[in-house]
Amino acid sequence: MTAKVNVVHKEYAVKKHLYLLMIVPALVVYTLFAAYPFISSLSLSFFDWGGVGPKKFIGLQNYQMILHGILSQEFYRAVVHNAIYFIGTWALTIIPGLFFAFLLNSGLKGTNIFKIIFFFPNVLPIIVIGFLFSLLLNPQWGPINAFLRGIGLEALVRPWLGDVKFAFPTIIVISSWKMLGFYILVFLAAMLSVGKDQIEAARLDGASEMHIGWSIVLPHIFPTVVTLTILKFIGAFNVFDIVYAMEGTQAGPAGATDVLGTLFYRLAFGGLGSTAMGMGLGAAVVSLIFVIVFPLSILYVFILDRRMGGIE
Amino acid sequence: MIKFGPVGKTIAYICLIALAFINLFPILMLFISSLKTTKEIFLTPLALPQVWSLKNYTQAWVKSNFITYFRNSAIVSVLSIGCIIMVTSMAAYVIARFKFPGRRALFLYLIAGIALPVKLAIIPIFLLMRDLHIQDTYLSLILVYTAGGVAFSMFLLVNFFKSLPRELEESAKIDGAGAFRIYWSIDLPLLKPALATVTIFNFIDVWNDFFFPLILINKKELRTIPLGIQIFYGEYNIQWNLLFAALNIAVIPILIVFVIMSRQFISGLTEGAVK
Fold it and tell me: Which residues of chain B have a CB within 8 Å of the CB of A30?
């Protein structure tokens, strides 16, 4: 018996390297179309290049132009917008997300229906949501303004997407509208993993329901809040589709909704009313987004790795 | 689970119903408006249509190319997800079951993509596709989506492998089965629940993606639904009735699939973040 096993082991040892072939397809496609482009994008940011013809190495000039030169105003405005987008969508998804998860976690009837109703915007394409809301917010006939008039909130009626002050907050609300259900259900799933015994014990000790929620449930789901906050930050600095759908590449009115994504798009690929200024400049903007996001990406991978206890 | 008293329950229901209304109102308006004439939309935006008619749908269908868009989205989604499942399940098997130098580093490298949106690397991707002469093809999209799907799917599958028993593999090994045989006939069937999650998660991503077709696809006949919708929106931007109908055509299939499979969708899409 041992002899046979040994033979098998030897044969296995011959085939030892073969199993590594099974990793190759994933490794190649991931490296070629995800990892390499990242590196390549960084190197491209040191060149002046329109996309065809020879590239001209210009050192840090693209960065100079973005951070201190003619593009700096647009760039910093976009960074501020991305930051506002992060804070705004954070406040409008994490906080109500927790609140509604608490409500759904209380064993009320109809919970399943509410789950479906809350979640469905997540499965719709963001571009469709953008177009839908630009129709619903039409300043002349949009049903949303009509509804506000109908319930006596005439004072709130305004051309939401055409108003310099309100356009960006409107986009923030709409993209939160799309995502809220996801947050509710993620928090709910996390809440369901709180130990029942722990809650029962607290109840026997006479703790109020409020106290249980605050001091047992909330701390339990805190890691989920952290994870979602990190992901939200990364997402917020990459936002593009919703702004593009609702305000176009120019991110109007008067750039009031311009974010790094739309700025990048205009520079690299041009857009209505502006010609592309170069792949190098676009790559520089992307590299700056990368610099902002990267520390959190590392942190996130670190958390994932630790939470799953490594691969051993 | 927190318990509410009668007052708490009432307040909870009021809040839940309010949010349900906020969620349903836009979709309700989308459906109602798609059945109305432009004039009705303009004059009585909140009212029901005077005549219930599907005329807008037939017009939008004729004027656009939705059949083509649906076909393209379906081809790209199915092939991308097929590729993702093939390449990541194999790689996850190796990472989860074999010890070799550099394994941990390789794993961290492969899952790093979870936190780095591929979108950011669009310029070199665009150039790469051009240099490989596959710009403006299904293949360009499939490759990007597969690459973009590797990280999360790897993470999920390697995690899932930990919960699978090794006994069957061990006895197959003793019977002389090679690594690929073991993966193919023992582990792949056991992976089904995790693969369902991988499928749903990537399906929503790929089916709804607008960004990569916007940049990689120029040919009319290769437009996917999100890109097709954008073109239609630009061409008929004051024929609201047609726009509403077109948006509905884009949305209805996925809503139906979602409602039928809501449980799988919800767990599939939320799993990554909970883990």
Answer: 110, 113, 147, 150-151
